[in-house]
Design a protein that fits this description.
It contains 17 helices and eight strands. By secondary structure, the protein is mostly helical. It has a single domain, classed as Orthogonal Bundle (ABC transporter involved in vitamin B12 uptake, BtuC), CATH 1.10.3470.
Length: 390
């Protein structure tokens, strides 16, 4: 009898986020009535969920390893600046986006995602102790920026010089500096401030508006990523929602069926045991942050699509919503536990609360109080589970 009760308890525990989702949705459906249950409200919930949801997919990987990321909101803001600056890039023949209306936005979006990946490499390298490599990467970019803005050299000359400087420092630091691992909280907290400051510096202290919004009378395709798809009288969710779904499927399959996914869980469960099993813990952590902050880069692309400009002040507090989505979805801040399905549910719960409070005419502070209470409850349940397992 006791074994059956424990088995039922485990099933209920795993289904807890889904039960919470049904409860929250049902509560607002009853309180909000037709105004909440209409397609427009559901579509708004999906729209609000996309950017936080995509960033949360990456954060799930980080939290499973026992890490944390407080820099994702700043990364998203910086990515919007990178893309806006690339949109405004021009040559003697005019704006590149006018010359290549399909290819150049692809390059700009790729540039934003690559920026996110670079931030992930910096965080991962700092966490495992490769501070010298981080310094080399940052100095390489600073050399490029200084040569371009301070000397007026061609960008085609600045980039090779910056690469040479960065590579030289990379090898020099590998010889002279020892590994000094840093806590993920401290690394990402530092980037939380410095990334936002760097974005404001690059943007000149203000938003970066796009000079060209359309080509040949048509909006540039990247602007449509956060707009509903219209097929006759039928309205489908925006492309951003489908991007979220595809990424969730890919990352979920990666976690479940690949060696890298198993290594992520192993590192989060017990790092020392993972080392004894032959897992390259350092490589796993760096790759985890690379993929995770790369998802933040994709979220930044969608934020740019939403705003239509680069804004260094956007997404303040998004990192808390991202972490909350993962924790509410059943992941453990101690590492080793979590999944993509739970994270999606956690994101939807937060956004249903947000939109539901709006439909009911409640103030923002009510939304914040309710969300905070849900987070505390989720963490409390996680601690209770840990005590029982111990």
């Amino acid at each position: 009898m006791k074994a059956q009760i424990e088995k039922i308890g485990k099933i209920v525990g795993k289904a807890g986020p889904f039960i919470a989702l049904i409860f929250v949705f049902g509560l607002f459906a009853i309180l909000g009535g037709k105004e909440f249950c209409q397609w427009g409200t559901m579509n708004d919930i999906l729209m609000l969920s996309v950017i936080v949801g995509i960033a949360a997919l990456g954060a799930t990987l980080v939290i499973i390893t026992g890490g944390i990321d407080l820099s994702v909101g700043c990364t998203i803001a910086a990515v919007t600046i990178v893309i806006a600056q690339m949109f405004n890039f021009k040559t003697a023949d005019g704006y590149l986006i006018e010359q290549y209306p399909v290819l150049w936005p692809i390059c700009a979006a790729a540039g934003g995602v690559l920026f996110g990946i670079l931030v992930g490499i910096i965080i991962g390298s700092s966490v495992v102790g490769y501070i010298g490599r981080v310094v080399a990467i940052i100095m390489g970019f600073l050399v490029i920026y200084w040569l371009k803005t301070g000397t007026g050299l061609s960008l085609y000359l600045c980039i090779p010089i910056g690469i040479v400087a960065g590579v030289g420092l990379w090898f020099l630091n590998n010889v002279t500096l020892k590994k000094t691992p840093l806590p993920p909280f401290i690394v990402t907290l530092g980037l939380w401030a410095s990334l936002r400051g760097a974005a404001k510096w690059i943007a000149g202290g203000s938003s970066v508006y796009v000079d060209v919004n359309e080509v040949n009378g048509e909006a540039i395709w990247i602007s449509n990523l956060m707009r509903d798809i219209k097929i006759g009288d039928t309205t489908l969710p925006m492309p951003g929602v489908w991007i979220w779904i595809i990424l969730a499927i890919l990352i979920g399959l990666m976690l479940k069926f690949t060696r890298f996914g198993r290594h992520i869980y192993a590192v989060g469960s017990n790092e020392n045991t993972a080392k004894l099993c032959g897992i390259n813990v350092e490589k796993t952590k760096i790759l985890t942050y690379l993929v995770a902050i790369g998802c933040g880069g994709i979220a930044g692309v969608l934020r740019f699509s939403w705003l239509g400009m680069g804004d260094p002040t956007t997404d303040i507090g998004t990192e808390l919503l991202v972490i909350a989505s993962v924790v509410i979805g059943g992941a453990s801040l101690s590492g080793g536990v979590g999944g993509i399905g739970g994270t999606i549910i956690g994101t939807l719960i937060i956004m249903i609360v947000y939109k539901g409070c709006t439909v009911l005419g409640l103030r923002n502070y009510v939304q914040e109080i309710v969300t905070g209470a849900i987070i505390v409850a989720a963490v409390t349940l996680d601690q209770i589970r840990h005590k029982k397992s111990d």
